[in-house]
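The following record pairs a protein chain with its ligand, L-captopril.
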Amino acid sequence: MDTKPLVLALAPAVILFALGAGTAHGKPEKKAQAKSASGAAAKPKPAVKASAAPTLADAKRFLAQTETKFDRLNADQARADWVGANFITDDTEAIAAYFGELQLDAAGQAALAARRYNHPGLARSLSNSDARKLKLLQLTLMLSDPKERAAYAVARAALSGAYGKAKYCPTDGRPCMPLGELEKILATSRDPARLLDAWSGWHAQSPAYRDRYADFVQLSNKGAREMGYADTGALWRSGYDMPPEEFAFEMERLWLQVKPLYEALHEYTRYKLRAAYSPKVVPLTGPIPAHLFGNMWSQTWDNIYPLLQPVSGARGFDLTKVLEKRKTTPKQMTEYAERFYTSLGMPKLPASFWERSLLAKPRDREVVCHASAWTIDGQDDVRIKMCINPTAEDFAVIHHELGHVYYFLAYRDQPVLFRNGANDGFHEAIGDTVALSITPAYLKRIGLMDQDQEQDPKTQMGDLLRRALSKVAVLPWAYMVDRWRWDVYAGATQPADYDRSWWQLREQYMGIGRPLPPQAGGFDAGAKYHVPADVPYARYFLANLLQFQFHRALCREAGYEGPLHACSIHGNEKAGKKLRAMLELGTSKPWPEALKAISGEDRIDGGALLEYFAPLKAWLDEQNRLLAAQQKG
Ligand code: X8Z
Ligand code: ZN
């Protein structure tokens, strides 16, 4: 992840703020004030009027100086953030806040200065590339009051630290449990009481930083407004080479395109959960309780595959079991992923990656365990930080993280302002695209699945269902997280309504409900990393569609003609070359051009995902018909 923008994944806050994602037309939203965030209005600030029109030479000098400055500041901040996330202490938090403030100041000043070049007289003479750099520079917050800037940076570092440190300490004498342990309970237990205890224990932690988050939202909005955006949500929606209000419509359009597939999966899951638990725990209509999906946020459901697998012919292959049994180490997990990328013709990871990354949860200190990928210097110093366990889930996540790392390495020769994904959804999609090629045939090839594992059509439906439990189940979640935040940033949702609005969206989009009555002062959204860490989430929704577009395009490039879900590009350098060419562009071109280069399409679209899952959709419809009839009978 990233933003700070990437923070998570990518780079330092600067990137997030200073670069954001490219916008060819990204201007502050101009509509009249609206109530809800998705249509939120902006009070655009006029471009700063310079007394004399700046010259082309001025613009070029300014960009050169700014790029030199950012190169250094990015590295400073990345190091401070790295240390802050790897050793959570009051001191490292203060250091991260200090550099965050410097960066915010520099980004704000550069944005203001860049505005000077929004001059009609200059528009004709600027190259596309320089014009794009000037636009990217204006995709940032700007807090001119040093006190507010400091407060913002302190709140940001504190929120990240608070999430990283949070633990559930039961009052009945059991030892405290960090998130990783609670997640394991959610993934493996089938005892509703135990699941509920783990779920509610974790969700009881975030109210402690709710007020801090609410203050942070105010400061962030102030910074967005100083730059002329309606609020921070509008700033986020401005990073997609289209007007921000159009982006909100695009998201809704894409969701509606894939919604029938989600609904079929949700209905099937309900029947199976009713059978596995009881009709008392799982109602026949209305939202399904959130603690039953095998995941703390019910965002992916593959951990409950054993409860949902097709009745006959299920192979029951369990990659987690194999990895556990072989005692696969975090380093070996990472090497599996690295070998996939090198099979595509990509380079081996630099030696410093192995020396500096954090691959396992340390026993002796607090770290932010949420997986992330980092570029420290914009060049070879790339790392990941992840508490890797030998599970199928982490096997996919490690491929995801290396996708970020290979993106960093591919665009390292771009100017610093273009060292970013074509848009943030692209950055999130690369590793997932590669992970779509982890097919049974591939697992056999690398010796993780027995050669004699049967492959009849019924077991294939099981594989496809398992994949849908992560890739389809996540869609409404990946959409609603920022639908919630857009409203929070727009002021349509006030702190007193945080939970009400969160669960209204959870129910509306996901069909999932709170397993316990809401608590006064609750902050369930804050139990998800990206909210306290302030990492935008729409990127994952886009990534979930883009990865299927990339997969289809790369499979075609490889000359593959069978069903999409059985394609693996492993070992195909021709496909690798095509992928790499897109990665090398960074954010130097509007993203539709990057998409066109790899797939021939210039719109993000759910068609490839629907094609991939078409056999499953037919199967689910049939199952649901039978299960509904059984229910009646
Ligand atoms: O945060 C992440 C990655 C780091 S960019 C591990 N993901 C989202 C999440 O965990 O909620 C990947 C999928 C969605
Ligand atoms: Zn990521």
